[in-house]
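Q: What would this complex look like in 3D?
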Amino acid sequence: MTTTLKPVDAVLVGFGWTGAIMGQQLCDAGLEVIALERGPWRDTSTDFATGFAQDELRYMWRHHLFQNVAYDTLTVRNNINQEALPMRRLGAFLLGTGVGSGGVHWNGQIWRFLPSDFLTKSHNQRRYGKKSVSDYDLTVQDWGVTYEELEPHYDRFDKLCGTSGRAGNLNGKIQPGGNPFEGARSSEYPTPPMIQTYAPTLFGNAAAEFGRHPFPHPTGNLSEPYVNPLGAQLGACTYCGFCEKFGCGNYSKASPQTTVLPYLMAKSNFMLKTECEVLRVELSPDRKRATGVTYVNSAGEEFFQPAEMVILSAYVLQNVRLMLLSGIGQPYDPKTGVGVVGKNYAYQTMSSVNVFFDDKILNPFIGAGALATVIDDFNGDNFDHSGLGFIGGAYIAGMVTGGRPIEMIYTPQGTPDWGLEWKHAAAKNYLKSFSISVHGSCMSHRGNYLDLDPTYRDIHGRPMLRMTFDFTANEHKMSDYATDRAAEVARAMNPREIKLNRRTGSFSVTPYQTTHNTGGAMMGESPRDSVVNKFLQSWDVPNVFSMGSGAFPQNAGYNPTGTVAALTYHAAQEITTRYLKNPGPLVQS
Amino acid sequence: MSQPYGFDAPPAPDAREPERRHAIPHPPQHSTNLGRRQFLFAGAVAGIGSAAAAALHDGALGGPAQTFRGAVPWVEGTADVPPGASGSGYAYFTPAEVAFIEAAVERLIPSDPIGPGAVAAGVPFFLDRQLAGKFGRGDHFYLVGPWAKGTPEQGYQSRFNPAQLYRAGMAAIDHYVGAHFTGATFSTLAAADQDNLLKGLESGTIELDGGVDSKTFFAMLLQNTKEGYFSDPIYGGNKDMAAWTMIGFPGAHYDYKEWVPRHGERVPFPPVGLKGRPGWTKSQS
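A: Here is my prediction, written as C-alpha cells for the whole assembly.
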C-alpha cells in the first residue's frame, strides 16, 4: 500500500552537492522543499571525526562511505556484442551515498571547463574540419550553454567553497602565476593557493624550464580559514593526506556538510528524509507533467510524495536510470541512433607517470586532495591538434594527494608485485617517488551509452542500469600524446627513473580510475539531440529538472564538480526568476 | 511519538512513517585524563556500541528512516568509531588453513633485515578477523545470480564471498599440491616451489578445482595481505607499526602544516596509529 503525503513545492531526489545547492536556492525563494536521500545522515563530528578519519582500510578498501553494491549496482560491458554483467565490487569508480554523497569523499579539485569545451563540435569543426569530430564514430555536441553564461555561477561555487587558487585570466587580463589558458574569471579566487610541497614544486620548476605554464591546482582544501556567503566557516587544511575516499575531519574540505548544510538544515521550509529511496517519478496520464515521486523507506513502506517540481539530484547513473524507469524522454538505441536518454555516456581518460629519485625525500604523506602543480598546455584545444588525429586533451599534474601505503606505493618498471624484491622496492622508493597525473577528456561515441539491463534487478525489483562503454581510438591517441608530454617533464626533473602507466586496452571495472561518469541526460539546443535544455529542464516533462554530470554531452579534461555546480546554480537562477512565475518550458523547442 | 532530535514534528500525513532514534548504549565515560583518540576508542575497545553504530553508518540498508528539519542533528554516543579486531587466536581459519596462510603470506612479504615479514606483522591474524567478519561475508559485494564467467574487464564474477573464496581456494591449492608433490601441502613445500606455485596462480597458468579462479583468488590474497601489512594496527596487522616504520610513513598523523615548506627534510615523527602509540599509553597508565 502506498501512503500519499502532503504535497510540496519541490522534491529533491538525492542529497549531495546538487541537491544541497538547489535546496538552498529553492528554499531561499520561499518554496517548501523536501529532499529524499537513500543513504544515511552524515556529518563531520559523527562520521569522520579527526580521531578516526585517517583510516585507509576502512574508508578506501572497505568502502565505508560508498554506495553498497550488495543492494544496488549496475551491469557493465565494453560493447553491445557482450553480455553485461554486474559490477560485483566497486572499483573503477567509487559511487557515493548518504547525505553529501560523493561531495563528502571527493578530493576537492575545482575546475572550470574551457570556453571551447562547451563548443566541442562547432569549435573543432571550425578549426580542424568536419572530419575531426566524425572520425571514430564520435557523437560530440555543443552544450547549448556557453562559458560566459556559466561564469557567474562558477564564481558562486568558488565563493561557496572558498576555493584556494590563483587566477590566470582576470577579466581577460592574463595574470602571472595562474592558468593562462583558463576562461576569463570575474574575480580572484576567494583564498590564496595552497603551499606546494617538494614534489609539485620540482614538477613546476621542470615544467617551466620546458616552456610550459605551471600553476597551483585550484582546490577546495582550503589554504586558510574562510567564511562563505552562507555563514559557514571552513578551517585551514593541515595536509594530512586523507581527502579522496575519506571525509575531512578538519572542516577544511568544501563539501555540502561544510558549506551548505549548516544554513539549509536550519530553514523551516526544508525537510530531509534519509534512508528513503525514490523508485520512480510519477507522471500525469498525458506524460507531460510529473505529479511527484514514489519512494520506499528502509522499513519497506511505500509513499507517494506529490510535488510541483521534481529535481533529479542523485548521481548521474541514478538520474539517468530514474528517467528510463519513469518513461521520461526517448531511450537511445545505438543501432539506429534514435533516442537521447542514455546517449553519450562518457568518462575520463586517466594515465600517469611515476617519478623515482635517489637523492630527494619527497614525504608523500604530506598531501591534500588537490595539492598539485599543474600544466594545462595540452588540455582541450589549448594546443594545435593539426595532424595529431584526435580531439581533446588532458591536464598534467604533479600531484600529491597523500601517501596512503596500501594504495600509493610506487615501484619501478619491472618490479614484481610481491616477494622480497617488491618489499625492498617499497622500502627504498616510498619517500622518494611520486606520480604525475594525466587527467584526460573522454569524447562521446555512438556505441557508448546507458540503458536498462534486461536481466539483473535491484532489491526493489527494478532493472539495474546497464553501462556499455569502452575507450575509443580518439581517447587512446589523446592519452598517449598527453602521457608523452608528462614524461618529458618527468625526465626534465632529472630523476633516477620514471615509469609510464599508459591508458591501454579496454575499460575495466577493476582498477580505480576516477568517479567522473558523465552523459546520458545530456543538455543541448533541441529535443532532437538532448534530454534537457540549457537550464537542465526535461524537454519532455518540463517540471522535471536533471542535475549533475549527466548533462555533459562529452567530458572535458577536467574534474567535473565545478561545472556540475555551475550548471546547478545556472538552472536554479532560471527556476527562481522565470519558471516559478510561469511554470512551463524555459526554452521553446 | 518522541522527538529525539528536538525538531519540528513532521506534518500530519507523515505520521505513519516510523521515526526512530538510534538505540545505541552510551560508551563508558572515563573520568581519567584519557587522550582524545583513546576516548573515541573507548566504545570500540570495550566492544560496546561499535557494532550498532556501524550498521547505521555503513552505506547498508536497514538503518532507520529519519526525518530532519530545523537544525543539523547531533546525538551523543553515536560517533562512527572503527570496529577494530579483538581477542587472540584464530576465529575463522582451521589449523590446516593456518598452515597454508602463514606459509603463503610469508612468501608474499618475506622477513629480512629491511623490514618485517607478513607473519611477524600479524597479517594472518588480520586476515582471520577480516574473513570472520563483515568483509568475509561480502557485505559490500553483489553476490546475486545469475552468474557468468565474464571478460577480465568485468571484474569479480565469483559467486563466493571472500570467506568462501579463501576456504575453497586454500583447499584447492593444497589439493593441487598433493597431486603434483606427493603427500605435500603448500606449507611443507620448499620456498622456491611455493614461489613458483604462487606465480602460477598469479598468472592463471595453474588451474584450480572447486570453482576457484586462481587469478581471482591470488589477487584477493595479495591485496588483503598488503592491507594487513600496511593498515592501522587496530585491525590486527601492521604489528608495532613496523611496516610503516620500514617505509617512513608517519601513520594517522594529523597536521603537517609546518613541514609543508621544509622541502627534502626527513620528518622525524615515529608512526602513530588511531589508538596512539605505545609510548603514549605507557606514560598515562
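A: To summarize the key features: The domain at 2-43+56-77+84-579 of chain A is CATH 3.50.50.60 (FAD/NAD(P)-binding domain). The CA atoms of residues 216 and 373 of chain A lie 5 Å apart.
Q: Very helpful, thank you.
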